[in-house]
Amino acid sequence: MSSPRNFLLSTDYPTDLIAFLKSGSVTVPPWDGVSIAHGLNFTPLCMGSFSLSSSFSSSRDFGIALYSPDLSLELYSNSTHIKIESTHWEDVHIHYRILGFAPSDYTGEVSPPATNTPWALNTDFNYMKIHKKGILHNVSSTQVVHHGLGYKPMVLAWRENANGTYREYIADTDGTYKEINITDTEVRFKSGGNTIPKIHYRIYHDD
To answer: Could you tell me if 145 and 193 lie in one domain?
Structure first.
């Protein structure tokens, strides 16, 4: 059988269920944050990007402190809002695009978010095929998830901290210690010396 990577969409594999999708512009105050309502009855797993230009001619991912201004997305369990947080020293006006997935353990119904297109699917785009997803509990050192794909796949993950906050799981800012290490056979999730109550992860056939 041909690799699922060769197809934009494959009905043999599940795709992500996007529960939240929002774009807009906002001024984020220094060392503070701005809240955006998500309107869901669960805490979505969010990621996104922002730009200083309305054209999005160049953009930056939230949560990577190599950039200036440094902005991140933070959510709290049982909260109705997503918070854009800033560690910048002055006001910064941004244009943002944020999406959120339903957690792996959510079993309720999810209404698709409103979009500016009448198409449910568009073959101009690739739809990432999920190979494996799940939740790791009480990660205190390094926990390994085997995928056996024979190449380094795309991986997304979010950490759910003891204080109820959710953040996307990404590399440390110095670029030497990575929270996620991906090989041709496995994904290694590292706790950084603290016990993490939950890590939500998705491993894709796409690379």
So the answer is: yes
Q: Beginning with the edge strand found earlier in the chain, give each strand of the sheet holding 81-86 in spatial order.
A: 33-37, 81-86, 71-76, 165-168, 155-160, 196-204, 130-139
Assess whether pLDDT exceeds 50 at residue 177: no
Number of Cβ within a 10 Å radius of residue 106? 17
> What would the DSSP string read from start to end of 144-200?
EEE---SS---EEEEEE-TTSEEEE----TTSSS-SEEE-SSEEEEE-TTS-EEEEE
Under the banding of pLDDT at 50, 70 and 90, the label for residue 54 is very high
Task: Judge if 89 and 150 occupy the same domain.
Answer: no
What residue numbers bound the domain in which 196 lies? 127-204
Q: Are 38 and 20 in contact (CB under 8 A)?
A: yes
- In a domain, residue 106? The reply is no
**pLDDT > 90? residue 61:** no
pLDDT interval class at 175 (50, 70, 90) = very low
pLDDT of residue 162: 86
Q: Could you tell me the end-to-end alpha-carbon distance of the chain, in angstroms, rounded to an integer?
A: 18
pTM, full prediction: 0.81
Tell me which residue of 166, 167, 165 sits closest to 61, measured CA to CA: 167
